[in-house]
Write a structure and sequence with these properties.
Number of strands: 6
CATH topology: Aspartate Aminotransferase, domain 1
Strand content: 25-35%
Number of domains: 1
Structural class: alpha+beta
CATH class: Alpha Beta
Helix content: 25-40%
């Protein structure tokens, strides 16, 4: 397991009620059968809205998640590089709260 994947599991598994699952064949965590984060290309991806979404997109190297690679990004999902691992926990909690509504 890479250091990035280890960090992903460490961050997401801390959230009470989060369950391991799959999203488009990628590892993810869900709450109530709704995905809130996943792991793709050694980066963590979060379903975000509002200020957290804007904040994540302001970080260098972040982008909207495009799992197909065909130029059809998912507008609420932001892919955040490992360079910002210190912020992954905050984004994961925000994503968790967003999909828990």
């Amino acid at each position: 397991m890479t250091k990035e994947e280890t960090k992903y599991h460490e961050v997401a598994s801390k959230i009470e009620g989060a369950e391991k699952s799959q999203l488009f064949g990628k590892p993810c965590y869900k709450i109530n059968k709704k995905a809130f984060c996943c792991f793709f290309h050694n980066e963590m991806v979060f379903k975000l809205t509002g200020e957290f979404h804007q904040e994540a997109l302001r970080l260098d190297g972040t982008e909207l998640f495009d799992p197909s690679g065909k130029g059809r990004p998912m507008k609420e999902w932001v892919q955040v590089p490992f360079d910002y691992e210190d912020q992954w926990e905050d984004f994961a909690l925000a994503a968790f709260e967003y999909v828990s509504i």
